[in-house]
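Dear Dr. V.,

Thank you for agreeing to look over these. As mentioned in my earlier message, I'm a first-year student in the group and I'm still getting used to reading structure tokens, so any feedback on how I've presented them would be very welcome. I ran two proteins. I've put each sequence directly above its structure. The first is here:
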Amino acid sequence: MRLCMTCTNRPGLLLDISQVLANQECDIVALEVVKGALYLECYLAFAEQMPELIRALQQVEDIHHVSEVAAMPSKERAEQLEAVLSSLQDGLLSINLSGIIEKYNKTAINILNLKADSLEQPLPDALLDILFISRTIREGHSFRNQEVFIAMTGRYCTVSTRPMRNENGKVTGAVIVLCESQGSWASKPKTLPFKKNQSLFLTGQTLEASLGAVEREILQATIRKFHSSRQAGAVLGLSHTAILKKLKKHGLQSGSY
């Protein structure tokens, strides 16, 4: 049973309500306080007990009216939020400081190709970097309409982020809005623009050295094309941190990001 009790708050009010419930042998399931009212969910010993319980609660000092309600306020708010999220055409995610998904809608799941049961699961590190989530949490400011390519899904999308803060102003996570797009920059290249007739495999080089030369050329060509280490990481399927390390290893410029 769920009840709404309009009341005037005072010290000892909850104690008096608890005493009534104890006398009626009712178990408290939940109790929520909103301005000017208390909401109570409890189990009755037997169904016929409800009128007697309501009369007893109305006799408590500073309780003005008691009525039955269909749902607790928190459940109503959750259902309203879920309805709003489901109606959004854009994807929406909320992530905590540990990179755990706390809320999402179906559009976000589709864009990022996540599992339907991703709630309370960590978002992949690559996505934390590509979607500006790590920087939003670390730096504490928003990013607006950042266009990215998500290599693992083959999709372009526009990303906007906003840090979530507690009452003390401390960042507690981030909210991310995703809008799928075709991408304003050039499509992901099927081949990279190597110099014509260039031979990367030089006689006398070890396999490790030859592969290093190939890696350097790929990085250099991708950075030259996209002018951004972050976008280069998205195209090559690497995290932003990994790209920066490889650029430093090969003595290349990281570009704008």
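The second protein is here, in the same arrangement:
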Amino acid sequence: MRVRRAGDRAVLVETEAPGRFDAAVRAAGLDGVVDVVPGERTVLVTTSGDAAALADALARLEPVARGDEGTGVVEIPVVYDGDDLADVADLAGLSVEEVIARHAGAEYTVAYLGFSPGFGYLTGLPEELHVPRRDTPRTSVPAGSVAVAGPYTAVYPSPSPGGWRLLGRSALTLWDVTREPPSLLRPGMRVRFVREAP
């Protein structure tokens, strides 16, 4: 673990267990902590107080097991009819039905949010479905698209460009500015995909 200052009001922690360290920071109740932002291999902690003192306190924290944040499992309904479903099957050496069964049969954890508001990077994707991004990204991916790339799966919360491979689509709203919080997904949540008929 490496702890370093990130300006006058923030500390960046590099760690192999960002979700567990995020949970440790939240559980510690450190004075002056304004926000905790987990990333793929980092946790950014902002403070209203002294960043040097915060850095010292963070260096003494031990990562803890991450809970489900009281949410149980968020179920995301999916119609598996994505444009890249057959390509993913070919890359994985599986049938389309096997891809669907393995994607829908796993339980995922929201590692962190990024790319666009409400876009959750979900870990737990079966290893055989770890496929590369498309060589040429699409200029527009519809909101609700369920996709995979590398070790992650995700649902596009809004229309955007994207290079992930599309497995299907969900009608669930992941980002809604009238909801509190606006993002349906938060780091640490558990997620399952539930197959729906077209």
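From my reading of the second output: The longest helix spans residues 18-28. The CA atoms of residues 27 and 64 lie 9 Å apart. Does that match how you would interpret it?

Kind regards,
E.
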